[in-house]
Amino acid sequence: MPVPTPEPAPDVHPAWLPPEAFRAVGSRHTLVAGDGKLVDTVVGEVERACAGHGGTVRRATDEPGARPADLVLALIPALPEADRRPGDAPDATAASGADLAAVHAAHVDLAAVRAAHVDLAGALGAEGFALARHGQVTVVLADAPAGLLYGLFEVVRLGDTAFGPECPVRVHRPALSRRMLDHWDNVDEHPVMGQVERGYAGGSIFWRDGRPRRDRARVRAYARLLAACGVNAVAVNNVNVHATEARLLTDRLDDVAEIADDLRPYGIRVHLSVTFAAPVVLAGLATADPLDEAVRTWWAETTRRVYARIPDFGGYVVKADSEGQPGPFSYGRDHADGANLLAEALAPYGGVVHWRAFVYNHRQDWRDRSTDRARAAFDHFAPLDGRFRDNVFVQVKHGPMDFQVREPVSPVIAAMPGTRLAVEFQVTQEYTGQQRHVCYLAPWWSEVLRYRPWGEGGRSVADVAADGGDLVAVSNVGDDRFWTGHPLAQANLYAFGRLAWDPALAPEAVLDEWIDLTFDPARSADPEMLRRTLHEVMDDSWRTYERYTAPLGVGFMVRPGHHYGPDVDGYEYTPWGTYHFADRDGVGVDRTRATGTGFTGQYPPPWSQVYESLDRCPDELLLFFHHVPYDHVLHSGSTVIQHIYDTHFAGLAEVIEMSRRWESLAGLVDPAVHARVSERLAEQLRCAQEWCDQINAYFHRKSGVPDVRGRPLH
Ligand code: GCU
Question: Which parts of the sequence belong to the Glycosyl hydrolase family 67 C-terminal domain (predicted)?
Answer without folding.
Answer: 484-711
